[in-house]
Amino acid sequence: MAAAWPAVPLLAALALWVYAVRHTDVSALDDYGLVSALHPAFWAGLAVLTAGFWFTVRDPRRRAGWPAAYVLGLLVIERATQAVLYPTPLYAWAWKHDAVIDHLLTSGGLQSADQLGDMAVYDQWPGFFAAQAALVRLLGVDNAAMYMAWWPLVSSVLLLLPLLLIYRTFTEDRRLIWTAVWLFCVGNWVGQDYFSPQSVAFALHLGVLAVVLRRYGRPGGRQRQAVWTVLLSVLVIAIVVSHQLTPGMLVVTLLALAFTRRHRDWVPLVTTVVIFLAWCLTAALPFLSAAMPDMIRSVGDIGANVETGYGSTPTGTGAVATSWAARLLSGSVLLLALAGVLRQRTLRQRALPLLLVAAAPLPMFAASSYGSEMIFRVLMFMLPGAAFFAAAALLPRVPVPEPTADARQTERGVPPAPAPRRRSPLLSLPPLRYAAWLSPLVLLAGTLAFVPSYSGKDRVNYFPPGEVALVRQLFDQAPDDSLVVAANRNYPLAYEQYWRVDHYWFLEDTRTHVDDIVRDPAAVLARDMAGVEAPARAYFLLTQGQVANSEMNGQLNTAQLRRVRESVAHSPRFERVARNSAGVLYVLKPAS
Asked: What is the pTM of this model?
């Protein structure tokens, strides 16, 4: 009976979660997103789960399966809550990716290489979309929207295996391994686990690192090395054909590892660079040729690469609070990682490759802004290494056994741990006397902080069924070559039938033109939309998702957008097509 006691807090936490989601109303989200809507039982469930995990993972008598069960419980609570609560999938970008897959299924291909518009990038990196199109057919569903709400949970579970392989390369301490996995899960708030090429590419990235860290730099014969090189090549090809940034992150990480004695095997790096360049110089060349001038200008401009531009600054109490929660969460994990590096000297030497994995993405700040998202991507790629050392900071001294002669032969180039010597005050900290409550409280604070960091913008990211129905009505009636004008692209189905309908998002235009629209909305919009020739039509669409995104990201506030809507409503140039609680749709009347 005593052996099964970890099941008690785990089941209690899941029961509290089920109760919470059954008593949470998401029909009227405020600027705090899901945070203020959640039933208090949700927070109690997270607290119980974290406490149960901490005392289970610290107890050497418990089976290794219990920490795994707690981590899976954490992922269910933090990643499946939105799928259960919201009747429609989150994120405009997820709906965009669904539209690309739909186009691939209906036409048998994507846009041709000479169409270097907003969607051309998907033609030159089609791996994810081709795989999803095959999955849609295999499952027999209508489209990817049938399952993409659950993708964050699925993609997060996919990360567990490579993470465990990586961490077990450097320690056999179960406490350290599973605490690092827990911190990785709660520190990974960036949101790239949604239905996207990045979610799969990141899992493959960790898979490549697991292969390199565990299998390269060890003797085993040319034949075994060739087998691992083939596997690595397959993983790299899948990354390169699916995503633009991840191959670059992988190259800088492998380059850092190649300069260590332990992994001075250049095969993984050379293989990755050759495959990456081959794709860039062939299939991806049209897009890169068009984007190259801007890419070159951004190299070295670190300040511009990390700053947010117009329309990306959180505005309002809720948006600012959740933004700071995310910053504090990431900052805390990085500070804990620094403390772990300084405290655990022997572990620092043993796990030097993980330290390099955490530091390697930093130079990417000088490479590009990546649409003002580079800072978030760097944090995400740093997290596997940072979480490991952050976990070491929360634990007592982690024993690292000195490698035997056989082990030293197996891990070529790894010398035995040096004899104890006088510590440098710059590289180590004195032993800390931890109060029994300090580490679990830190772990609990990080676990709770994940929720506002990850779900604090759900007012922007959630589209109610009425909004989906309104946009679907638009595309059901729009003739070929029609134009859809909207404030921004934050609405569902925004790219539905993008191959035959054009879009114009006026908040992405120059600030001068946006000011002109605010001063005289109907007249300026009618002039912008007048170039559409019959039988095509020009539509004006304004939904609650656009309003939320504009207001919370510092573009136009609700009053200004209301003025735009009222001006269009009272203009004789526009005719209302549809309206519901989530938005309104107008069409520009033909000129007399």
From this structure: 0.87
